[in-house]
Amino acid sequence: MTTTNTDNQVGSGYLESLQKPASKNNGSTGQAGSALGKDAFLQLLVTQMKNQNPLDPQDNGEFVAQLAQFSSLEGIQSLKESVDGILTGIGSSQALQATSLVGRSVIVASDKAVVDTTKSFNGQVVVPSNITEGKVTIKDKDGNVVKTIGLGAQKAGTADFIWDGKNEKGEAVDPGTYTFSAETKVDGKAKTLATLLPAKVNSVSFQNGSEMMLDLAGIGKVGISKVTTIGI
């Protein structure tokens, strides 16, 4: 007598239908798809056991492989959810830390700074290699030179400078926004050097997928990665 394994064919057909990817026209979300996968897994387990032909049962190895496949997919989904949760937590932590910067002073690469000329102003110049001379030129909002500060010989690194808030005549100037430029000479030719200046953080802005931005007094918006030092 010939036995046709119709029950096993039903089980296999059901398995294939579960393994086929959802139609592109299906409006289900990724989360719904994940939930369906869990339910389908249980239905598959019960259906295959109910429809096995006693004379020709499904191979154990094949069934175990199917279980492993579904388990792997479930594991990947769980891992993704865990990673998403971790990234969300990190983003929240960074946002909280960034808001604590409001009202504080930071050091950032810039050529402008709001200066309270009633007290000493401290800045830095980035020196890429040893120099024998250098200078910092300070200009007011109208572009007039207010003061020139000599740097002298400097080793590679950063060179500090201090401005007392006075002009070349020794007269106190008004508080406000000033422009700083630094330069040295290499083989007799002028070479511009970057300046690191303090600025007060007015506010912090956030945008998904983008770097947090600091709104700095006298400078404007600057990425938090541009900050070299956080002051008080």
UniProtKB/TrEMBL annotation:
<dbReference type="Pfam" id="PF13861">
    <property type="entry name" value="FLgD_tudor"/>
</dbReference>
<feature type="domain" description="FlgD/Vpr Ig-like">
    <location>
        <begin position="115"/>
        <end position="185"/>
    </location>
</feature>
<keyword id="KW-1005">Bacterial flagellum biogenesis</keyword>
<dbReference type="Pfam" id="PF03963">
    <property type="entry name" value="FlgD"/>
</dbReference>
<keyword id="KW-0966">Cell projection</keyword>
<keyword id="KW-0969">Cilium</keyword>
<dbReference type="InterPro" id="IPR025965">
    <property type="entry name" value="FlgD/Vpr_Ig-like"/>
</dbReference>
<dbReference type="InterPro" id="IPR005648">
    <property type="entry name" value="FlgD"/>
</dbReference>
<dbReference type="InterPro" id="IPR025963">
    <property type="entry name" value="FLgD_Tudor"/>
</dbReference>
<keyword id="KW-0282">Flagellum</keyword>
<protein>
    <recommendedName>
        <fullName>Basal-body rod modification protein FlgD</fullName>
    </recommendedName>
</protein>
<dbReference type="GO" id="GO:0044781">
    <property type="term" value="P:bacterial-type flagellum organization"/>
</dbReference>
<dbReference type="Pfam" id="PF13860">
    <property type="entry name" value="FlgD_ig"/>
</dbReference>
<feature type="domain" description="FlgD Tudor-like">
    <location>
        <begin position="93"/>
        <end position="228"/>
    </location>
</feature>
<comment type="function">
    <text>Required for flagellar hook formation. May act as a scaffolding protein.</text>
</comment>
<comment type="similarity">
    <text>Belongs to the FlgD family.</text>
</comment>
